[in-house]
Design brief:
- The protein is an alpha+beta fold.
- Helices cover about 50% and strands about 15% of the residues.
- The chain contains 7 helices and 5 strands.
- α6 packs across α7.
- The protein is elongated, with a radius of gyration of 35 Å.
- The termini are far apart.
- The N terminus is likely disordered.
Length: about 230
């Protein structure tokens, strides 16, 4: 009789079971042909760069609720007043005094009158203002972010971006106070230095703000301008 083989060590059994569990699951799953290697998703860095080359992210358009409500209200009031007066005239009543006065003024005043020119200038200015509102997106307080797909859009508030950059600036050694203002094309940072060389603090602050700005994944990263001043008192 041949002796039985030695039983496996107690400590090796659990590890062997743990090693075979994933293999068993892979065998039980149905095998399907996977996508080719060139169709695999790109890393986030490459995907962002590919996205920047394919399309540009624009600022979201404003609904213009306040200008639209004002224009609609003025037109509604004027239309209702004129319609009410026309109905009253058709019913046999005399025309309203304001409409008779307006008709007389328009018929008797020359075109070079001061009030006529003033009214024309105001009307032209309002028309240009409405055209500008219709052709511009508005929402200048929001910064567009890079998006992984053309149909997906996201924006970041300037004040929120300024708070994040200010917190990053306060972590730089030597900075006792920092003020950050974010604009569309420029980030202005002012810092008070209590110790260390101001030039070194400025270099560190520029690097830290640049890293924090890159983490915000802005579609158009603004340029960073840093100013420091020595505070000894």
């Amino acid at each position: 009789m041949t002796p039985d083989p030695d039983p496996p060590a107690r400590g090796s059994t659990p590890s062997a079971r743990r090693a075979t569990v994933p293999m068993t699951k892979e065998l039980e799953e149905p095998t399907e042909p996977g996508p080719p290697e060139h169709d695999a998703p790109l890393p986030p860095e490459l995907a962002a760069g590919e996205h920047d080359r394919r399309h540009r992210t624009h600022r979201p358009w404003s609904a213009r609720r306040i200008p639209a409500a004002l224009v609609a209200s003025v037109i509604l009031v004027a239309a209702v007043a004129a319609l009410f007066d026309v109905v009253a005239v058709r019913a046999g009543r005399p025309a309203a005094a304001w409409r008779r006065h307006l008709a007389d003024e328009l018929a008797t005043r020359p075109l070079d009158d001061v009030w006529v020119l003033t009214g024309a200038a105001v009307a032209a200015a309002l028309g240009i203002w409405l055209i500008v509102l219709a052709l511009t997106p508005g929402l200048r307080h929001w910064l567009p972010l890079r998006s992984p797909a053309p149909g997906l859009r996201a924006s970041l508030d300037r004040d929120g971006a300024a708070d994040l950059l200010r917190d990053a600036a306060m972590r730089v050694p030597g900075v006792s106070r920092a003020r950050v203002r974010v604009r569309r094309h420029r980030i202005k940072a002012r810092a008070d230095v209590r110790f260390r060389d101001p030039q070194q603090v400025k270099d560190d602050l520029t690097a830290v703000l640049g890293e924090e700005r890159d983490q915000l994944v802005l579609a158009r990263p603004p340029r960073i301008v840093v100013r420091v001043r020595q505070r000894t008192g």
